[in-house]
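A note from the maintainers: we've had questions about how concatenated examples are separated. There is no special marker in the raw files; a new sequence line simply starts the next protein. For clarity in this README we add a label.
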Amino acid sequence: MPPPDTPATAESSRWRTPAVIMLCGALVFMLSAGTRQSFGLFLRPMSSELGWGREVFGFSVALATLVIGGVAPFMGAVADRFGSGRVILLGGMLWALGLFGMAHSSTPLAMTLFTGLVVGMGAAATSVSIAIGAVGRQVPDAMRSKALGVVTSGGSVGQMLVLPLAQGLIAWLDWRLAMTLLGGIMVLLIPAALGLGARPVSGSGHGDSQRITQALAEAGGHRGFLLLTAGFFVCGFHVSFIATHLPSYVVDSGLLPSVGAAALFLIGLFNVAGSYAWGRWGGLHSKKYLLSTIYLARAAVITVFLLVPVSTLSVLLFAGAMGFLWLGTVPLTSGLVGQIFGVRYLSTLFGIVFFSHQVGGFLGAWLGGYLYDVTHSYTLVWLIAIALGVFSALVHLPIDDKPVQRIAMAKPSVAAEY
């Protein structure tokens, strides 16, 4: 195992200030999340040209969602041991290969493999859990929560930048060239990976001498970790259901499709401010109570949205409110993991919590469509979303957020670390 950064080896990395580290982490999540959000733009032209229908691409993207969640903890473990920079570089190569393969797939099987597996693994290696782990270990404790908010807001910046870029490339060129060029843009992950550093960084706080098996056992036996994981499932359900089905709900209600598009843009815009604000507040107040506030506020916003007549104004107000609450859960949830267990294995532990988020996301997108086909209405899914919001607000309250107390252990050897 390469040695963590020490005073001797850190001399050459003095330029990696907290600001540089935050910006590089935000860039990683911006490129990864923004590109994934653009996939919906390719659905119609791709399906029309290839004649496969929409199910092939829809299943491929759904598979990628599960792969991201399932692989993220393992990528996090690799990042914790060998350094986040190396994992991000690997992710960039997988992204480029996957997008090139998607653009040139000639069979449904090839499309499924390149989208679901190759892109899925690339997205896992550049996911928010990897970026947050890299940043969380290297910034001072006092600014960690705010820094994680900056990283999280990068996802929405990517949504606002990559979506119009992808749409313009599709209109100017065609969907194949547009997708290939998006793969080329992943070269920007190289400077981001260098800015985050190739070597593993032990970070500050307790737990530096732990083995990963001990960290996993400790977290698995901690009720607060299990409650956090359950709560983050709800976040994934909310985000995926609304992002996937809100545009259709708007059209079903008699409004123009452009209103749905504007709503998604507003969600991304307000999430930039919300992620930063919640992250900053997390450094000043109890993170678990802030998480309960977010989930309860989501339930209240959805309730009001269902009770008032659907109009352009109500949709846009709903989008702005939900956008402010959108991913503010990420810096708070990841920050709480680091606060309780230390930051040595933050990418690994938050990767496990993130998997729950992805399972919730899969169910939110799929169940929304299934129940609509059965009932010809989204009402039941909206009610489920409200109930889950109240549930998540409650499960965060009993979390013991004090740092775990453990007996200091001797530094494990490389052979014994795992």
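[label: protein 2]
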Amino acid sequence: MSETASLLTFVLALAFDVLVGEPPAKIHPVVWIGKLISYLKAMTGPTPTKITGLIVASIVILSTVVAGHILVWMVGPLGIFVAAYLLKSTFAVRCLLQTSSDIGKAIDNDMNMAKGMLPALVGRNTADLTRAQAVSSVIESLYENYVDAILSPILLYLAFQPLGLGLEAALAFKAISTMDSMLGYKTKSLKEIGYFPAHLDDLANFIPARISIFFIAMANPKRASEALDTALKYHSATPSPNSGWPMAAAAGSLNLRLEKPGFYVLQAKGKDPDTSDVPRALSLMTSVLILTAAAALIILALLQP
């Protein structure tokens, strides 16, 4: 893909995401990646091993990258539109903002409904969450997913584009991320097969998670130092080596106490969140996303001949 095509591909992908959102499940690349993962997992039998997980991960990543590359090549002159469609599938700006907003409104109006909606964002048990803890979970997930669902695939696209492999890198990341969301749990049935997918996901998000704190800090200049200080102080409070960075930076920028009961507290001195903080978090995230998109466009423009 040429430098000009890579810029246009990114612009089209971003426009599709913001204006249209997620495509139907029948033609959504991530849904098909998920089907492949489910099929391969079923083939591994009742006691898969770590080596089995490595084989599954290799097949999923290679199949995703090769399928995307061939599909773009097959359609010839229309390849840029297919590339944009595939690139869009690796990040989810509109979906993340809309889901977070909808759940925030539900918490304000009907906690029981909100608890039923929260699993779309978080993996924790929602049954006993207080209102403040439910709001915290929305904000935590919003900023954790900023890295996994937006920043990481964009950064990989930028990093590998000079080699002509930007789309392939973003697709490889999405394959890894999807495997982690389906297999990366420490349960008896998934601990072994999910070992490599989970560690690959940690590796892929390692640098983006740390870069994210600067975008979050710049999005609210008045509390930039608090965002960075909180990230540096609390990033290791979470079990994940990556999620603590953007979540703690958000806690500092918004001056909030974010908590996953029984697991961690980010910025203990911050105020307990309430439903009015969800729009604040979304506004901050909108600024973060604008900065992210602007930085990506500048980098792609600088790559032009």
